[in-house]
Design goal:
Blueprint: H1 7-14, H2 20-26, H3 33-49, E1 53-58, E2 64-71, H4 73-78, H5 83-95, E3 97-104, E4 107-113, E5 130-132, E6 138-140, E7 145-152, E8 157-159, E9 162-164, E10 167-171, H6 177-191, H7 202-210, H8 213-233, H9 238-243, H10 246-260, H11 266-295, H12 301-326, H13 328-331, H14 338-357, H15 362-381
Antiparallel strand pairs: 1-10, 2-7, 3-4, 5-6, 8-9
Helix pairs in contact: 3-6, 8-11, 10-11, 10-14, 11-12, 11-14, 12-14, 12-15
Length: 406
């Protein structure tokens, strides 16, 4: 069995720089590594039994085979051997120790000392090592240490100076990542004893920190589209006819997600932001032509809306179906990164189908309703001309010289 230095040896080295009380607190305080491992295993077991989670695993384990070296400090002191000399000997023979540099063939080489492979494979090889005492005498290392087989942790992870165990997993099919995080928090609150806590890291931490900001992003995206169109049309009602078709496109997104059994993940949310622009694109073409026919050519609002829809229907259908066929490879993607491609492709495919087949008939309806309401408001605010029955103000006499007739 390969020789593995226990963490207790590292603790002996750390005692020279860290007071014992602080070091024990950093090592776990009232909870040791076995208690942490036991509670971690219980939490992983309950998580895998939960229907909303799958593939939970933890890298923390106290069952890794190790070789424990117990140094007899009393005997070492009686033989005038410093503990640092013992550590240096183990480091040099079992690990490696840098000596110096030397130049040869116009190159600089590093010199390390280390025992040969055949003399550092077994724990019994320690009996061949010697350590020098303060008098310069060589003392066999086997007389100062006791070797025994133990089980421990290969790696102790620290989180805010506390020993921690990382748990990895994912949400089960049909459950969102937010639901998986809520389930883990409930299981942790039921499983962990008093004095132990949990926290999120990596992408889960970012998701918990962001929270419901995705809805704010959706609102800001729609507001940005509305404000840009309001500045372009110089109107507050025409952009509303464009923005109102976005919920209709979301119906197609919802049906596409339900048909494939996908959840609302990060890629789905990115696709929703993209659909706000794609759904508005078709409506902008119809509203733009309708405004030109009404304001420039003088057609009534309803006739302008019908004529604009008739003229722009074929270009809209051609460009929309070309785009839909372009995202089909994303919908049926395979291989590395297929999950993210399928999520975005499904959202865009379903949203564009609904925007093309369902939203186009509603665009002229929204335009006629909003534009008619806007004209009624403008007429009500316009001042009325004076009638014949009202008294007219007296006219001023013409200025300048008057010529009397002869």
């Amino acid at each position: 069995m390969p020789l593995i230095l226990s963490i207790d040896d590292l603790r002996e080295l750390a005692k020279k720089r860290i007071p014992r009380a602080i070091f024990d607190y950093a090592a776990g305080g009232a909870y040791d590594e076995r208690t942490l491992s036991r509670n971690t295993a219980d939490l992983v077991q309950k998580g895998n039994a939960s229907p909303g989670l799958r593939g939970l695993a933890a890298t923390f384990s106290t069952r890794s085979p190790q070789v424990y070296l117990n140094i007899d400090r009393t005997k070492a002191e009686s033989l005038q051997v410093l503990p640092q000399s013992i550590f240096d000997t183990l480091q040099a023979y079992l690990g490696s120790s840098f000596v110096n540099f030397f130049n040869k063939f116009n190159q600089v080489f590093q010199v390390y000392i280390q025992a040969d492979n055949a003399y550092r494979l077994q724990a019994d090889d320690l009996r061949h090592l010697y350590v020098r005492n303060q008098n310069g005498e060589m003392v066999p290392l086997n007389a100062l240490i006791q070797v025994r087989q133990v089980q421990g942790t290969e790696l102790v992870t620290r989180y805010n100076l506390y020993p921690a165990a990382s748990i990895f997993g994912s949400a089960a099919p049909g459950f969102s990542s937010g639901q998986a995080l809520d389930t883990m928090e409930q299981l942790a609150a039921q499983t962990l004893p008093e004095g132990m806590a949990y926290d999120w890291t990596s992408t889960s931490y970012q998701e918990r920190k962001v929270g419901y900001q995705a809805y704010l992003i959706y609102a800001l995206s729609i507001l940005l589209v509305y404000m840009v169109l309001a500045a372009l049309y110089e109107s507050w009602t025409s952009p509303a006819a464009v923005v109102l078709v976005v919920p209709i496109a979301l119906v197609g997104v919802l049906l596409a997600q339900l048909s494939r059994g996908y959840d609302n993940n990060l890629y789905t949310q990115v696709g929703l932001v993209l659909m706000i622009a794609l759904a508005s694109k078709n409506a902008i073409l119809i509203v733009e032509f309708a405004r030109d026919l009404h304001n420039r050519d003088g057609l009534p609002i309803a006739e302008a809306a019908v004529e604009a829809t008739r003229r722009r229907f074929r270009p809209i259908v051609m460009t929309s179906f070309a785009f839909i066929l372009g995202v089909v490879p994303l919908v049926v993607a395979t291989g590395a990164g297929a999950a993210s491609q399928q999520a975005i492709g499904t959202v865009v495919f379903g949203g564009m189908m609904a925007s093309t087949l369902l939203a186009i008939p509603f665009v002229p309806v929204f335009y006629v309703a909003l534009e008619s309401m806007s004209e009624r408001v403008r007429k009500s605010r316009r001042p009325e001309p004076a009638t014949h029955g009202e008294p007219q103000p007296p006219s001023r006499p013409p200025s300048g010289p008057q010529v009397a007739p002869e």
